[in-house]
Structures are given as C-alpha cells and as structure tokens.
Amino acid sequence: MSLSISVIIPVYNAEPFLRKAVESALQFKEVKEVILVEDKSPDNALLICEQLVSEDNRVQLLQHPNNENLGAGESRNLGLKHAKQEYIAFLDADDIYLPNRFEKEKELFKNLDVDGVYNAIGVHYYSEEAKVKFCNTFNHPYNLSENFLTTVNREINPKELFEALVRPKNSEGYFSLDGLTIRKSSLKKLKGGWFNDELRLHQDTEFIARLSFYLDLYTGEITKATALRGVHESNRITNNIDEKERNLFLKHNAIGCWAKSEESMDNDIQHYLINQKLYHETFQNKGFKLISTFIKNSFFSKGYVAKRKFKELLFPIYNKFR
C-alpha cells in the first residue's frame, strides 16, 4: 500500500538536532511534507528551518501569529491545520525516525477500520549526564540501556486500549507520539479538540488518552524501535523536574475534567480518572505538600517513595470528608 504522510515537527531550542530529525523523515518516499512549526526558539533553530526549506520542497515552515511562543501542543495544532496528506505522523525536533518507521502502517491501513497505528520507540543518550538526568527524572534504574523501548508490551484490542493506557493493570506500557500514525479523516471523531494548549508538558499523553477512547488504534511494531528519542541535557521534561508535581496535576486535571464530561465512558473507569484528578489536586494543597516534604527530607533517601506512601495513607481520608 502506498501512503501519503504529513510529518509535523514542533521546533523549539533544537538547533543541534533539527537537521538530523528532518532528514530522518525525508528518507521515506511516503512522506510528502514535513511541517516545521517554529515556536520562537532562543537559538538559531529558525535559521536551520529556513535552510531546510530552501533545500527540499517537501519542507514547510510555519510560525505562530506575531512569532509568539505557544508551546508544543499549540504548535502541533497549527501543523494539523495545514497538513494536506491523508496520514499524519509526529516527530520531536531532537528525535529521529528509523528506516522501519512506517512498515506496519503499509499493511494495517489497508483496513479502513484502522484509525491509527502505534509503534515502539527507543532512546539515544547524547551524553552520560543526560542519561543520569533522564533516569533520575523518571525513577528509572541508571543501567537503563539504549535498547529500552517505549511501547505497549502486547497486542491490544483497539476497544480495550483506552483502559490499558489510563488504568494499566499489568504494566502494559504506553506509546509515544513519535511512534504514532493517524488517518487524518479520523480526527473528526475526536472530542475535546486536538492538543490541549493549556498544557505545556504532557499534552501528548492527554491527546493519546482521548485518541484511544474515540478512535480505533492498532498495535504496530512493538518488538523493536521505529524511532529514537534523543535525550540531552536541555530536554524540556527533565529540566522541569522542580515542577514535576505541578505538571502531573495539570495533566490529571485535564484528563479528569474530560472524563467527567464524557457520558459514554464506563462508570468504573470514569470514577477512577476523576479520583486521579482529586488525588493530584489534593497534594497541590500547600499544607499537604509541606508535611510531605518534611517526611521526605527527614526519613527517606528517595523522596518519591515517601510521597507515594504518604499520599496512599492520607488521600482516602481527604476524599471521605471533602
């Protein structure tokens, strides 16, 4: 099957990596356009964008009105508005596609019931410092190798995928935007808009949750990487570690509010997501955070263990009397 794909790349502070990312997308004859959305980068990324546009007529450059910085979510939304091809794929400006990126799509999209296909992605560390920072941020063991995959670990029925992602029972895993391809016409099924522009981080997770609820997403290549996440010292998510709890609260708040409004959702899952929202909302409360911080600093060497145990103890009490 011949595919016609638009690849959307939000660009912010990615000067050292951007060219390699774009070239990794242009290697495919199926990629008919690469849409760069430059988000007021503080480095020379705009210059690299302009050079790439001049070198290949498949590359397009977009910017926000008044050259504002609006974040990755709104940048992807702008790219979606301008995408002309039948299929949509995403790539971060510091990541790359591997040569097998669209192999499963060629077969699966022959079935018109397939709204999207997701694949495994791997990781590439640009330095040891970046590896340490990444592992510390996500509480991964430091010996996490470059063979680590971001993927679901089994083939999942599309009708069961939403619950597997938002309420995993057996550590079934998750997937990334870099490994996702969507039939553009299927996006009209998505309620709640495209990417949530109020989320500066985790807007991809919130988007994928809603996609998996409204669309039929099929398992593609999950045994080996089809793209590589580039981990370096200036990654946004690892440099926002001090705001980690706040960003998690915003993500769970967005998902919980959407779940509360979605009447067709299974009641058990809906209540779970609403409670997740309340759980994180509770611990934005300054008093709880102060006590949690005290316990963390006083009794535990690993703060996330203290926080988790503390929350597990107090949240049911808070929820009972709120």
From TrEMBL:
InterPro entries: Glyco_trans_2-like, Nucleotide-diphossugar_trans. Pfam families: Glycos_transf_2. Gene3D superfamilies: Spore Coat Polysaccharide Biosynthesis Protein SpsA, Chain A (3.90.550.10). Residues 6-133 form the Glycosyltransferase 2-like domain. Keywords: Transferase. The keyword Nucleotidyltransferase does not apply. One of its GO terms (molecular function) is hexosyltransferase activity. This is Glycosyltransferase.
